[in-house]
Amino acid sequence: MTTTLRAAITAVGGYVPETKLTNFDLEKMVDTNDEWIKSRTGISERRILREPGKASSDMGTEAILDIIRKKNIDPLEIDCIICATVTPDMPFPSTANLIGDKVGAKNAFGFDLGAACSGFLFALTTGASFIETGRYKKVIVVGVDKMSSIIDYTDRATCILFGDGAGAVLLEPSTDGLGFQDAILKSDGSGAKYLNLKAGGSLKPASFETVMAKEHFAFQDGQPVFKFAVKGMADVSAELMEKHKLTGDDIAWLVPHQANLRIIDATANRMGLTMEKVMINIQKYGNTTAATIPLCLWDWEKQLNKGDNLILAAFGGGFTWGASWIKWAY
Ligand code: UT7
To answer: What superfamily does domain 6-178 belong to in CATH?
Structure first.
């Protein structure tokens, strides 16, 4: 027994829109095919939020309402909502604030955190630190992206990859040694040129020219990102395991960001894990950016056991990357 105050994940919620966009649908939109997409990425279909007037906050709200229902908590007890997203409803107010209003978390403060595909990991570490100080008792971390709002569906290099969704976790204090153990997080802004959204910020405010140049869509130079991702995600996961003298046998689950099945394979290999210990749902959701990791936890929640060692790992725009070690608490 230890008296160290840790942050335990005590509930998981999720939401994916009903509309599916399959590889066969994409074959009709751009010059691509199911075989190429599946063999190069592992993706078969992704979900798209089609309803007009619906945005990231609506998906984040559904994911958090899932937690509120499961745990039967009063929204007024929530202290803080951290929303990881690159597709906020609007630049301000923050999507976390909009979600807080929609779920009735009247006593919570909230803010958005932008770290692209590593957003959930960065937000989880931030939320866990809030709990570890002893100041807050219920922190919700939600990863949500409506990637369809920034994807050019005439660009086959990106439109096959991304989907929409939201996943959330509730963090609460724990003194039994379970919960969030450690994280190693990294950023390198020199990678900005490979993966970005060029316009709509203070550098290039929206104009007729930026719209005509399609600069409000996500841009990715896939091959260099792939190389950095394979190395970054595997290296940081190995570094975290070495730091804590963990071997593949100690790990119950790898929970990787779902960008490409080949990147996930390489990371699992480096960690000495067989694929049955790796959460993979990329085939049905594609890359939902900040939502991939919590959506894996949501899909696997029933198979997780108290005390399981989980390594969460991500790599994404920035570049940003990292890994965290969690002992499952329920
Ligand atoms: O989550 C954030 C971090 N992002 C990532 O981690 C993504 C990292 N990158 C990747 O996953 C991969 O680079 C992609 C899946 C994006 C692309 O796979 P790739 O194996 O790197 O393909 P490539 O870009 O090297 O293209 C290979 C070929 C090219 O044709 P040629 O030049 O060899 O004739 C492309 O034009 O495949 C062609 N191609 C396609 N063909 C059919 C590119 N996109 C498509 C497509 N359908 N959608």
So the answer is: Thiolase/Chalcone synthase (3.40.47.10)
CATH assignment, 181-327: 3.40.47.10
Structure tokens at 59: 């998906």
Alpha-carbon dihedral 46, 117, 59, 25, rounded to 10 degrees: -20
Domains 6-178 and 181-327 are alike in CATH topology = yes
Give mean pLDDT, residues 17-26: 98
Position 2 pLDDT exceeds 80: no
Q: Is the CB of residue 40 below 6 angstroms from any atom belonging to ligand 1? A: yes
User: Measured from the CB, is residue 80 less than 6 Å from ligand 1?
Assistant: no
Angle at CA of residue 168, ends 163 and 169, nearest 5°: 150
User: Domains of the chain: which residue ranges?
Assistant: 6-178, 181-327
- pLDDT, residue 3, reads 81
Catalytic residues: 117, 257, 287
